[in-house]
Amino acid sequence: MTPIRTLADLDGQPHANVFPDAEPKTIRLTLPEGEEVAPHSHPGRDIVLYLIEGTVELQLGDATHEMTAGDIVRFDGDQEISPHAVEDSTALIVLANQSDD
C-alpha cells in the first residue's frame, strides 16, 4: 500500500519524521519565529530543503542564505547547517544517501 501522510497531522516538534524507518529520510521541520536548530551536519547525505511557509536564514557552512516560502535548496550534508526562523516557518527536508557516482 502506498502511504499518504498529511504534514500538519505529524507528531514531533521541531522535527517530525514523515515516513519512520523509510529511506530517503523525510522530515517536517517546524520552527516558531526566532527559533533555530543548532549547527550540525548529516555526513553521507544529500539534502533537499523545501520551505513551505515562512522565512528562514539558512546557515550552510560559512554562508547564510535567506529563504522564503516556495524556495528549495539542495546541498551536501557533510557541511554544517543551521536554520533560523525569521518568522514562523515550516519546511520539508529530504535526506538521501549519497551515491557512489
Name given to the CATH homologous superfamily: Jelly Rolls
Percentage of helical residues? under 10%
Give, in order, the helices and strands.
Answer: EEEEEEEE
Distance between the termini: 31 Å
CATH class: Mainly Beta
Radius of gyration: 13 Å
Number of strands: 8
Class from secondary-structure proportions? mainly beta
How many domains would you count in the coordinates?
1
Largest sheet: 5 strands, antiparallel
Please give a structural write-up.
- This protein has 101 residues and is mainly β.
- The protein has a single domain (24-97), classed as Jelly Rolls.
- It is built from no helices and 8 strands.
- Strands 1-2-8-3-6 form a 5-stranded antiparallel β-sheet, with no helix packed on it. The protein has a 3-stranded antiparallel β-sheet with strand order 5-4-7, with no helix packed on it.
- Strand 4 and strand 5 (63-68) form a beta hairpin.
- This is Cupin.
- Residues 1-20 are annotated as: Disordered.
- Residues 29-89 form the Cupin type-2 domain.
